[in-house]
Amino acid sequence: MSFFEKSLNTLELPAVLEMLAKEAVSQGAKEKALLLRPSDDAATVKHLQDETGAARLMMTLRQSPGFYGVKDVRASLSRANLGGTLNTRELLDIAGVLRCSRSVRGYIADDKLGKSCIDHLFYGLRANKFLEEKISTCIVGEDEISDSASADLTHIRRQMRAAASKARDALQKIISSPSYAKALQETIITMRSDRYVVPVKAEFKGSIPGLVHDVSASGMTVFIEPMGAVKANNELRELTAKEKLEIERILAELSADCAEHSTDIISDYEILVRLDLIFAKAKLSYKLDCQQAANEDRGIVLRRARHPLLDKEKAVPIDVELGSEFDTLVITGPNTGGKTVSLKTIGLLAAMNQCGLHIPACDGSNLPIFSHILADIGDEQSIEQNLSTFSAHMTNIVNILNECDGRSLILFDELGAGTDPTEGAALAIAIIEYARKRGAMIAATTHYAELKVYATNEKGVQNASCEFDVETLRPTYRLLVGIPGKSNAFAISKRLGLTDVIIEDAKKRINTDSVSFEATIEKLEQTRLMLEKDRNEAQLKLRQAEENAKRSAFLKAELEVRLEKADLRAKREAERIINDARSTAEEVFAELDEMKKRVNEEDDVHRINEARSELRRRLNLHEEALREPSEPEKEETSARPVTVGDTVRLKSMGITAEVLSVSEDRTLTLRAGIMNVTAKEADVVLVNEKPAEKKQTLRSTGTQLHSSISTEIDLRGMEAIDGVIAAERFIDSAVMAKLKTVTIIHGKGTGALRAAIQQMLKKNKAVRTFRLGRYGEGESGVTVVELK
C-alpha cells in the first residue's frame, strides 16, 4: 500500500465511502463506491462533480430512479454465449436488469428535467421489452415454469392432470370401498417415488394386489400402488419426463435469446450501476447538506466546513483559507481543542472533492486539484517494528517528503513532537521549509512556541488557533486564522484538579521570554475578541439593513403589481360593460327592425328612431365612463310631496307614469301606459315636464322598458303568495316591454311555488303558453312563458 493510500485511510475516507455505499441500491454500485479513489485530473474531477450536481438537481424535481433488480448478470451471459443453458434464477435476474433498464430509461422521457451532463447515460440504455416480457411470461417463479411457456408444455401438463386424475380416481375407489377398510392404515392417497400409492397395514398387504414402493420405519405400514393405478402412474411418469425435456428446451431457447442480446444487456447493466453510483452521491449530498465546491487554482477556501463523520447538528463549522496569500498554516491551541479534527477536515474534504463527492461546506468554497494528499496524523508507535512515537512520525515524514511535489497537500499533526522541544521545533521548521521549497501546501499542528514565532515572522506562513473559552475552561472548536493559540496547560490542569501550589510553581519556572510571548498572545486574543464582537454587531446591522431594503423592494414591487392588476381589472370591467351594452343594442336593433317590418304606421317608425337614439346615447355614456372615472350618482329625490295628477318616474324601472291616487301611508297608484301599478313614494321621483315633453316620454316608454326589463325573474325562497304577486308584476312589465318569451325561476323544492305560479299563468290573459325548462335551461326548476 502506497503512502498516499495510507494517508486516505488516516483521513478516514473509507468511512465516508461506506456511507456512500449504503446510499447505493445495486451490489455493483456498492462495490464501486468502496473502490472510489481521488482523481488528480482537473477535467475528470469537474465531470464527476457535474454528474453529482445534475443527479441532485433531478432529485429536487422528482425522486431518484429505481435501481432495484440490478444484479450482475455478466457471468451468466458469458456462459450463455458459450452455449450453456441458464437456470430460472439467472434468467429472472436478466429480466430484472431489462425491466430496470426500461424503467430508468423512462425517467427522463418527458423532457421536463431539462438537459444535463448525464442524459447520454439514460439515452444509452437499450431496454429490450420483448425479451423481458418473454422471460417473465415463461418463468413464473424461481421453481416454476408457466403452462403458457409453449404450446407443447400446455398440452403435456393437460395430459398430466388427466393422468393424475385417473390414478387418484382408481385409488379413491379403493379407499372408499368398505371391503378394503380393514386393510388400510389410513384412508388417504399419498405419493412414493413420484407414484400415487395407498398406505396398507403390513398384515393385509396381500389383500390389495399391486406394487410395493415403500415400507414405514416401524414396518407396520406398506405403501402399495394398486394394479388399477399402475397404467395411469406409468403414463404420468412418461409425461413428467416429457415435461422436463420441454422445460429444458424452453430454458435453452431463452438462454440463446439472452446470448444474442448479451452485448446490449451487459451495456445496460454497466450504465445502471454507474447511474446508481451517481445518484448515491447525490443522496449523500442531501444527507450531509453538502455543496459543490469550485476547483480553481487559487488555494483552499472552506466556508463553514464540517467533518462529514460528525453529527451535523453538533459539529462546529470552520472557515479555512490556505494557498492564496500564504501556503503554510500553523495551527496551535490546547489539547482536545479541535486541531486534529480541523486538519482531518481539510484533507478529507479535498479527497472527497476529487472523488466527485460534494463537500459539507457552504457556497464560496474552493478546493484545487492535488496530485497527492499526504497526512501524518496520530500516534503510530509500534513495539513489533521497534518504533517509538518520534520514530514513527519521522518515518511518515520521510515518505511524505519523498512523494510531495508542487501540487501536493501535506498535513502534519504535532510536527516535531516526541523528542527534545528545542531540537523538535528546529526540525519542524526545517521540514516545513523543505516542503515549501517543493511547492506543497502545508497545514501543521504544534504546541511549540518557536513555531508560533516562525509563523508570525515568516512570509507565506500564517498562524491559526483553536479557540478556548477561558471562562468555562472549555474549547469552542472554532478555528481562528491569523491568531496564534495558547496551550492553556495551566488552566486545563487546574480544571482537572491539579493543586494551585503546583501550578504556581510551574509558572515561576517558565523563562521570561516565554512568559512575555504568552502574555502577548493573550493580549492579541483579547483584542481579537473585541474586534470580533464589533464585527458581529456591524454584520448584524448590515444584515438587518439589507433585509429591510429587500422587504421594502418587495413591498414596492407587490404594490406596483397590485395597482397594475387593479387598473387592469377596472379596464376589463369597463370593457365588459361596453360589450354588454353593445350586445344589448344589437339585440334591440334587431327587434326594432322586426317591428318596422310588421308596423308601417308613422308613429311606430317615430318610436323606433327615438329608441335607436336613446341606445346610442347610452353607448356614448358608457364609452365616456371607460375613458374617465365617473362621479358617484346622487340619490334622486322629489322637490315636493307627490299629489294626484303628477307625473313621476319609477326609479327601479325607469318608467314614467301618472299618479292616480295617494293612500294614507303614501302608497301611490300609478298608470303606466295600459297598466296600473302600485309603489311607495320613496320608489318614485317627481318629473316636472311640459306637456310636449310628457308626450315624448310616453312615446318612448316602451323602448325604455324594453331595455331595462330582464327576461327572467328569480323567485326562489319566496312564499307562494309573494311569488305569485311578483310574477304577475313581472308579466305585466314584460308585456309593456313587448317581450315575447320570459323565464320564471322558482326552483324544484317541494313544488308548491311552481304549482302556484303555473296556476296563475293559466288565468293570466297575457300568457300564450308556458312549459317547464328543458335540459340546460333549468329543467323543472324554471317555467318558460310565451307571451301574446
Notable features of this structure?
788 residues, alpha+beta
Structure, explained:
The longest helix has 87 residues, at 512-598. The chain contains 22 helices and 23 strands. With 788 residues, the chain is an alpha+beta fold. The model is unreliable at 381-386, 629-633 and 689-707 (pLDDT under 50). Strands 10-11-12-9-13-14 form a 6-stranded mixed sheet, with helices on both faces. Helix 6 (88-105) crosses helix 11 and helix 21 (720-736) packs across helix 22. 52% of the residues lie in helices and 15% in strands. The protein is flat and about 130 Å long.
SSE topology:
Blueprint: H1 3-10, H2 13-23, H3 27-34, H4 42-61, H5 74-81, H6 88-105, H7 119-123, H8 129-138, E1 139-141, E2 144-145, H9 151-176, E3 190-192, E4 195-201, E5 210-215, E6 221-226, H10 227-260, H11 262-287, E7 300-305, E8 318-322, E9 328-332, H12 339-354, E10 372-376, H13 389-403, E11 408-412, H14 421-437, E12 441-445, H15 449-457, E13 461-469, E14 474-481, H16 489-495, H17 500-508, H18 512-598, H19 602-627, E15 647-650, E16 656-662, E17 667-672, E18 675-680, E19 684-686, H20 691-708, E20 712-714, H21 720-736, E21 741-745, H22 752-763, E22 767-772, E23 782-787
Task: Provide a brief overview of the structure.
The chain is α+β, with helices and mostly antiparallel strands and about 800 residues long.
Helix content: 40-55%
Spatial order of the strands in the main sheet? 10-11-12-9-13-14
Q: How does the major sheet shape up?
A: 6 strands, mixed
Per DSSP, the total helix count is 22
Low-confidence stretches: 381-386, 629-633, 689-707
Mean pLDDT: 81
Shape: flat
Number of strands: 23
Distance between the termini: 109 Å
Structural class by secondary-structure content: alpha+beta
Strand content: 15-25%
Rounded Rg: 50 Å
